[in-house]
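Fold it.
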Amino acid sequence: MEKDKKLTIITTHINADYDALASMLAAQKLYPGSILVFPRFNEKNLRNFFIQSMGYLFNMADIKNINFDRIERLVLVDTRQPGRIGDLASVAEKKEVEIHIYDHHPPMPNDIKGNHEVLQLTGSTVAILTEIIKNKGIDISADEATVMSLGIYEDTGSFTYSSTTVKDFMAAAFLLSKGANLNIVSQMIAREINAQQVGLLNDLIQAALHNDINGIDIVISSIITNTYISDIAFLVQKMMNMERLDVIIAIVQMETKIYVVARSRVPEVDVGSILTLIGGGGHAYAAAATIRDKTIAQIEQQLFEILHKKVTPLRMAKNIMSSPPITINADVSCQDANNLLTRYNVNALLVTKSSKIKNRLNNLVGFISRQVIEKALFHKLGQAPVADYTTTEIAIVDPDADLSKIQEKIIENKQRILPVVDHGIIKGVITRTNLLDILVKNSINKTDQLPGKIDQYVNARTRNVVKFMRERLPERILDILETIGRVVDKTGCKAFVVGGFVRDLFLYKKNDDIDIVIEGDGIAFAKQYAKLVGGRVHYYKKFGTAIITHPDGVKIDVASARLEYYKFPAALPTVEMSSLKLDLFRRDFTINTLTIQLSPDKFGTLIDFFSGQRDIKDKTVRVLHNLSFVEDPTRVFRAIRFEQRYGFTIGRLTSNLIENAVKMDIFKRLSGRRVFSELRQILQEDDPRPAIKRLADYDLLRVIHQTIKLNQKTVELLNSVKNVLSWYDLLFIEESYMQWAVYFLVLIRRSNQHVSDEICKKLELSPELNTFFSKKRIHAESSLSLLEKNRVISNSMLYKQLSAFKTELILYMMASAREERIQKAISGYFTKLRYVKISITGKDLINIGLKPGPIFKKILQAVLDAKLNGIVKTRKEELKFISNYVS
């Protein structure tokens, strides 16, 4: 290279693709004697292709060997962004350097301005340069045509991308006429994926999170890898095709850099303009950025802010309507209509005529507003039918109506509520408040939502968890879930597995309790499914629920998606048909709102409306709304149970709401049976002691009785019970017992018979349990006291004091014993004495000449005592003992 010769440098963007490489070669034909320079030469496939195949075609130099002061002309191809040409950006800033630009990207605010520019929105930059070469009559070789074709085929997705233009086809045709080898092009485009790339692609798929942003499903996948892996853009495109995604943004940290690759199929998401704001660039449909000195979390946050601003909202009626519509019959009274408005917290209702087919347009009478209802009540017209005051002139829209049409209908007709109608069926409604919210958000471009606001729940986070399910679930359970999906698909409904089953799946806990929610008629589905699998079905029409029992005993609980409302605090819920989201909103805690779709086309799609995944990750128990404990106080007990079972923490707001519910004494409205059911479930946990302590912390033990307190002695006894039960379980005795009852005996141990009876009555216990916790407990405590008073305890005495009691009472006595010798004695009863039997019977006594009578009982008891005390062991010794005893 001559020292003083001025240079023409041709360059392209960092992380060059085949279009960039091909464009550099084409530009070299237009600028003879020019030098090709990569700003950073790190694309492995390009390097291999260049070195092994076509290196002789390029007049290439390393950027380190270029003297920037000698550059008089800088030719940019496939980019004009200063941030994408590395150190050569400093050259572009020099006034004395002539800038020539050939690019097919859309304009950006900070584009480099050239002295000569050829800018066209084609599918590839090399197509632009090919046209110039053709028009100038510049000859090219077959190898050059092959390289240039490679750029066109890659950047147009082999002419399948929507950005492909006529010029791309024409350029390809010209290059083919010049001898382009399509076999080489095919081999390079359809390259094999190595093991590292397969792993990266799998990680991207597993990390994918679906985000509904302004009505568009945008997938963001963030991963970290310690080594550099080439062809990220190719892998992201492959993932987009495999998963059939509309928009994907992949954020990949490799070593010290973060690479962001974005692809879009929809016009509402221009990924080029989005990534430009983080230092990248590209087209509306494909873009990339390389970032240093930021964390993935920072980039994610920045992208979310940009997406909310830049994504064009899909504002169609079907996207913003509330569904299902809440309607009222025309003959219902104004007073009942007012109750309905309050129950659903709405300001207007659709008024319909009675019909077997719900929500038909033909049955629509009109609408009535809260304002009209309140005036009717003010004038003492509460018993008048709503039909008398219904606004009957009502406009409607179809599901695909845009925002302008919705705005026109509501404003011009002065209509408070707008029905959305599809094929004669009312699918949902849009209220004036809905419209106002959208218009306000559009006007102030609101994007930043504070945690805890209801807006964060409008859209669900979704992701595919099929692989995770296959790893975690037994084949039998998976088969059941897939069969449910196939059956429900034929009915036109949707099926979801919900609740504890999904929660425990992500907590790596076994849970075979399958709860299914059907968006539609759950009972009809249950009947159809049971018929297919040969199972039994029991259904409850009032609640829209059913239980399916398989031939092998596996049970499935089925519920129609329903909305529960409470007529007064602590009441049992009233149930109505609803959508999945409303059904989940009625549940107790966010961690129990996760659901997985089972329909074949979306099988394994996790749906998270209420940030349940976040709370599982944060190990936090949170309620869904502030009146949760007022509506159902039993949720307090469940909050404590879940907190202790999973090692979670009750959220601060949720904890405050529990304290408030205790202050309001809302539990007095609960039936004793519901309190006892929740208390028993707590005491059935593997170790209920921490939960009992939490009950005491919230002053909830007084829900059992005002005298129940957790003092140091009670804590010690609970610890003793835990030790005793652990010992007993290790005996592997094939006899079930009520663990919860032993702990409950400790809680009420200081209660006299009167108080014990009060507690049993309050908790609505059966007469048998009442006797057990009252009379028999007190009797057991007396027997324990008697044993403790005797310094020497024979086996027969021990047997006499313990044999009359159930296992639970004996374990309670063992835990309550103040002396180790008593505990050892009781343990000996379990291991040696409890099942001791004598071999002789009354028949044997008759055979030796004794007459039947009360003496028989006395003799047999004496033989048993002798055997317990080790005096006799065999039948022969028993008979000899009787002979001596009688004489």
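The chain has 37 helices and 28 strands.
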